[in-house]
C-alpha cells in the first residue's frame, strides 16, 4: 500500500505535467506511511475526515486508485461522479475537505453521535501543522475534551505549511496545545509502520472502551512540492528531506521485497492511468 500510494502520486504529477489533468492537487509524497499505519487500526464503521492532502488517506482505507484517479480526472467510474476532484471526496464514512480546519468541528459532532449511538466507534481526523492556526481546531478540542468524545486527531506535522516553516507559524508545540485542553497526546517520529501500529494499538483500543479524544502527532516530511511545482525550500533543504524519505530507507532495509512491491505497484498504477485516461467524462452527479 505504501508503494501503491507513492506510485499513484507520482503518476498524478506526471499527468499534471502533461496537461492531462486540470485544477490542483496536493500529493502526500513522503507521508504515505501515516495513513497506512493509522488505517490498520480503524474499521469501516469508524469515520475518517481527510484534508487537502488526502489521496493516501483514501487509498489506505479503500485501496481504490481507479475510483480516485477517475474522480480527479473527471472520468467515468469516479468515486464522486467527478464533482469532488482531488480534495472533496465523500464515500460512506469518509469525507475530505480542502478547507483547513473545517473537518474538526464536524468530526467532533460525529464523535458525539458515535459516543451515544454507536459506542466503540470513533471519528478520525487528519490535519496538518499549519491548520493549528485555525480557531475551529481549538473549539473542537475544547468540546472533545469536556464531553470525552472518541476523536482521534492525527496531525501530519511535515514541518511546513505551503511555504511557511512550522517554527515561523506555531508558537509552542502540538503536544503543549493538546495538554492545554487536557487532551492526551503522543508524538511519533518513526516511519516504521509496524512500530507505529504497536505504539498506537492500545491507545486506540482504550479510546473505544472508554471514549476520549487523543492527539497523535507524526513528525513527518513533505517530499514533494506543496501542490504541483511550488516548492519554496532551498536545494539543501530538499536534499535533507529526500534523505529522510521512508522509501529510501525501506529500499535499503528490504531490497528484494521493495523492488518486487515497487514494480507491482508501478505496473498496477500505470495500467489504471491508461484505462482511466481512455474513458469518457463522468458527466454524472453523485448517485
Ligand atoms: C481555511 C483555509 N485557508 C487557507 C487555505 C489554503 N491552504 C491550502 S493548504 C494550506 C497549508 C496547509 O498547511 P498544513 O496544515 O501544514 O498542511 P500541509 O499542506 O503541510 O499538508 C493552505 C494555507 C485553505 N485551503 N483553507
Ligand atoms: Mg504542513
Please provide a written account of the structure:
It is a single chain. The strands form 2 sheets. The chain has a 7-stranded mixed beta sheet with strand order 2-3-1-4-5-9-8, sandwiched between helices. It is globular, with a radius of gyration of 18 Å. Helix 1 (2-17) crosses helix 3 (55-62), helix 1 crosses helix 12 and helix 5 packs parallel to helix 6 (135-146). It is built from 12 helices and 9 strands. It has helices at 2-17, 33-39, 55-62, 65-73, 103-117, 135-146, 166-169, 174-180, 193-209, 235-243, 246-253, 255-277; strands at residues 47-50, 90-91, 94-96, 123-128, 151-157, 160-161, 164-165, 185-188, 214-219. The longest helix is centred in the last third of the chain and has 23 residues, at 255-277. With 287 residues, the chain is an alpha/beta fold. Strand 8 (185-188), helix 9 (193-209) and strand 9 (214-219) form a beta-alpha-beta unit. It is 47% helix and 13% strand. It binds thiamine diphosphate (TPP) and magnesium ion.
